[in-house]
Design goal:
Blueprint: H1 5-17, E1 22-25, H2 44-52, E2 61-64, H3 74-82, E3 90-92, H4 100-106, H5 112-125, E4 130-137, H6 144-157, E5 161-166, H7 184-207, E6 213-222, E7 227-232, E8 237-241, E9 250-261, E10 264-271
Parallel strand pairs: 1-2, 3-4, 4-5, 8-10
Antiparallel strand pairs: 6-7, 6-9, 7-8, 9-10
Length: 272
């Protein structure tokens, strides 16, 4: 189901009037959004443009949670180029597998060539853009070669973060009845390798921003360390010495160094 876009705009206005600084567009299938009450087609692109142009005197940003490759076109990409101070340059695009054979078995609506071409266009047109994705490990029929191809294509595309999920069989689904179910230990090993790859790619991406200035929206404050924590528009998590009066504000920060946290990287910065 899709909501009337007027109700979405009214909710955004209420949130902004109450001090919210980041609006997140989320849903099961965001890219398929269409206002059912409009005679003329009103899609996600129309909604984002209307949101981006609202109240130019206010300082806020808009983040899209996740969108399918097949739902991104030139007009959608152009929006992020045209409204760089409103639309966050962070695209979460589920890949699921980097093997063409497995994508076909999954019945996905895109092919690797399309995916690569689209992400290259995004990187070319949007400054500082970050690309994250979802990958399923151990889908039925995934061989060691398929897994290697997946890792190679993840590197080629240049993701900054991978959300990894082991394939989980659900009774009654087509996939549950497929032959060549992948052994649990093999799935676990592949998950570990993908998490390691995600960390490697994140380090490579974040390192590009050392000694650079980015705007951070601070969300939390740690009383014990006097550290503020927030995110840049391209979704880099940043820790910075400061005080709680800066919570829910945008501040320019110079990014200084990487911080290793579990299976990921974050950054430490200094207020400017």
């Amino acid at each position: 189901r899709s909501r009337n876009h007027q109700s979405i705009m009214e909710e955004m206005k209420r949130l902004l009037d109450n001090g919210v600084k980041e609006i997140i567009i989320g849903g099961i299938d965001v890219g398929s959004y269409e206002d059912p009450h409009e005679e003329k087609a009103y899609r996600l692109k129309n909604l984002l443009r209307e949101m981006a142009e609202y109240a130019p005197e206010k300082h806020f940003r808009i983040r899209v949670s996740s969108i399918e490759c097949s739902q991104i076109d030139d007009e959608y990409i152009s929006l992020f180029h045209d409204y760089p101070n409103r639309l966050c340059p962070h695209f979460h695009i589920p890949l699921q597998s980097g093997s063409e054979k497995i994508l076909i078995k999954m019945n996905r609506k895109y092919r690797l060539e399309d995916f690569y071409s689209m992400t290259e266009k995004i990187k070319k047109n949007i400054t500082n853009v970050a690309l994250s994705t979802d990958v399923i490990s151990g889908f039925p029929g995934e061989t060691d070669e398929d897994f290697k191809i997946t890792c190679d294509n993840i590197r080629k595309i240049g993701f900054t973060k991978i959300h990894v999920f082991p394939f989980s069989s659900r009774s009654g689904t087509v996939a549950s009845k497929m032959k060549d179910q992948v052994n649990g230990e093999v799935k676990k090993k592949r998950v570990e390798e993908l998490i390691k790859l995600s960390k490697e790619l994140g380090k490579e991406y974040y390192s590009k921003f050392i000694d650079r200035k980015l705007e951070v929206l601070f969300e939390t404050f740690d009383k014990e360390t006097n550290m503020l924590t927030g995110y840049t528009s391209n979704y880099i998590k940043v820790h910075c010495p400061g005080d709680p009066s800066l919570l829910n504000t945008f501040r320019n920060v110079k990014l200084l160094e990487l911080i290793e946290k579990d299976n990921d990287y974050e950054m430490k910065g200094r207020l400017l």
